[in-house]
């Protein structure tokens, strides 16, 4: 490989959904601050004239010239997936490739899913030949890239890209899986996968206790958070040790995972421009519209509401939520109704006028809320968001669950609980403390800083 004296070079292979891509881009920036060369591998689909995600990533990288004191330089390499005319019309192919991953992540349930499940689900076709074809389709382009490129020392691949391991196997390149959820959720998923307690309950509405797990955590039927095969070198998580130490220990000692906690990675965005346009161009003018309004508000007086990048409420539900917010008597910023399009979330959360966050418990949003020192109203919508809710409300005790189907009343009650009274004060003070811990973790000498250093040293040693 001839890589001994080379600068450490890491490929990052993100899944192109905001909740996966944004933290991986931040992570790549973090690596570069330690002298690592980073290359982002962007999948595009043949015959799609404008691969939509490429400009988003290019812009983010172009804009991010610095991270802390370091100058950032990140390369991009595209790999082309062939169009799958046999399965779907051409226009749907890009959607299809992304869709596959959502399907396997949220609906297959097994950590050892195989592409045949994807083929069957999407095309209705059956049998090994279809599965093999799809496997090959996914990993061959990466294998080809590696064939023609100086080999990186390591690949950080999204958890929904298990085929990366096949593509890299013959080159002996270690694969680190980026698990884009909390350690709590990742280890709960392992326990549920091992002990299948969901089989013991009579229906999805009957809760069960997560077995062999710290705390009496009751959960309703939840799909596992799939993890790719154990052949990977280790797992990187966007969390910090002090946030969930019990579960971090559980994950390594009981689940037997080799893991590094290097977050919150969002903290590498230092200035307003980077925070404001993280992920996509913000749909509002970050300098004036939103910030000017917030600047006129008292400290901790505004509630920020956002249900992530994927949620889809019906109009009648939106109306009920709006009525609940109105009835709570609080001032709020709501992504979806008040801000249409993409909000500068991290910038808003960090504003001192914001005092509470209504979240769907996507892990990035949850951790961004923690980092901003904010108590939360939790409203999980699917998959591992239900685990993250438990972490926020029952373990960290900085959240109030909405926990009901009558949106209006439930949201009014939860938001009042979040913003008014003694308990709200206690939650806010705990949240502030966690926010300070998050910032310390990423500073020189902090736990996440040290984990990243240890990982880099280990990767260097592998090649010496
Ligand atoms: N986000 C944002 N503006 C928006 C919506 C989302 O900046 O209007 C960001 C948010 O800060 C987070 C990511 O998109 O980093 C969403 O990831 P998360 O895991 O919270 O939820 P998902 O979208 O995957 O359900």
Task: Give structural notes.
With 464 residues, the chain is α/β, with parallel strands linked by helices. It has 17 helices and 16 strands. The strands form 4 sheets. Strands 5-2-1-6-7-10-11 form a 7-stranded parallel β-sheet, sandwiched between helices. Helix 4 (115-123) packs across helix 5 (128-147) and helix 7 (183-195) crosses helix 8 (245-254). The protein is globular. The N and C termini lie close together (11 Å). Uridine-5'-diphosphate binds next to helix 1, helix 12 and helix 13.
How many beta-strand segments?
16
How widely separated are the two ends?
11 Å
The overall average pLDDT, rounded, is 82
Round the Cα radius of gyration to an integer and report it: 22 Å
The protein's oligomeric status is single chain
The percentage helix is 40-55%
List all distinct small molecules, including ions and cofactors, that are bound in this structure: uridine-5'-diphosphate
Query: Which blocks of ≥5 consecutive residues have pLDDT under 50?
Result: 85-95, 101-131
How much of the residues is beta strand, in percent?
A: 5-15%
Secondary structure class reads alpha/beta
Q: What is the general shape?
A: globular
Major beta sheet, strand line-up: 5-2-1-6-7-10-11
Put simply, the count of helices is: 17
Question: How would you characterize the largest beta sheet?
Answer: 7 strands, parallel
């Amino acid at each position: 490989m001839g890589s001994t004296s080379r600068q450490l070079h890491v490929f990052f292979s993100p899944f192109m959904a905001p909740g996966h891509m944004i933290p991986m881009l931040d992570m790549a920036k973090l690596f570069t601050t330690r002298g690592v060369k980073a290359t982002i591998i962007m999948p595009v689909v043949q015959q799609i004239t404008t691969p939509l995600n490429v400009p988003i990533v290019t812009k983010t990288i172009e804009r991010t010239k610095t991270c802390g004191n370091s100058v950032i330089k990140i390369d991009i390499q595209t790999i082309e997936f062939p169009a799958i005319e046999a399965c779907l019309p051409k226009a749907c192919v890009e959607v299809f490739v992304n869709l596959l991953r959502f399907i396997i992540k949220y609906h297959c349930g097994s950590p050892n899913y195989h592409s045949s499940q994807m083929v069957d689900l999407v095309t209705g076709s059956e049998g090994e030949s279809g599965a093999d074809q799809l496997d090959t389709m996914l990993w061959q382009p990466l294998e080809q890239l590696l064939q023609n490129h100086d080999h990186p020392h390591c690949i950080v691949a999204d958890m929904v890209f298990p085929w990366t391991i096949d593509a890299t196997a013959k080159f002996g390149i270690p694969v680190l899986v980026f698990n884009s959820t909390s350690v709590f959720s990742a280890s709960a998923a392992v326990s549920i996968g091992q002990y299948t307690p969901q089989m013991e309950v009579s229906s999805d509405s009957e809760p069960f206790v997560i077995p062999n797990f710290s705390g009496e955590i009751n959960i309703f039927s939840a799909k596992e958070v799939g993890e790719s095969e154990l052949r990977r070198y280790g797992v990187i998580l966007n969390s910090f040790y002090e946030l969930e130490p019990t579960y971090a220990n559980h994950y390594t000692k009981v689940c037997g995972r080799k893991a590094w906690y290097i977050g919150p990675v969002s903290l590498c965005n230092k200035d307003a421009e980077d925070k404001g346009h993280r992920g996509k161009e913000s749909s509002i003018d970050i300098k004036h519209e939103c910030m000017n309004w917030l600047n006129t508000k008292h400290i901790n007086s505004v509630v920020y509401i956002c249900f992530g990048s994927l949620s889809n409420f019906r109009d009648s539900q939106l109306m009920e939520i709006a009525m609940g917010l109105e009835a709570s008597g609080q001032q709020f910023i709501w992504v979806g109704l008040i801000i249409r399009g993409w909000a500068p979330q991290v910038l808003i959360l960090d504003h001192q006028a914001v005092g509470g966050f209504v979240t769907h418990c996507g892990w990035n949003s949850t951790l961004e809320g923690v980092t901003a020192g904010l108590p939360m109203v939790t409203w999980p919508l699917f998959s591992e968001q239900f685990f993250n809710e438990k972490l926020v409300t029952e373990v960290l005790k900085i959240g109030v669950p909405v926990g009901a189907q009558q949106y209006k009343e439930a949201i009014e009650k939860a938001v009042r609980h979040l913003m008014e009274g003694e308990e709200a004060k206690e939650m806010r003070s705990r949240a502030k403390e966690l926010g300070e811990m998050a910032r310390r973790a990423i500073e020189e000498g902090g736990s996440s800083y040290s984990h990243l250093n240890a990982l880099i040293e280990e990767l260097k040693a592998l090649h010496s």
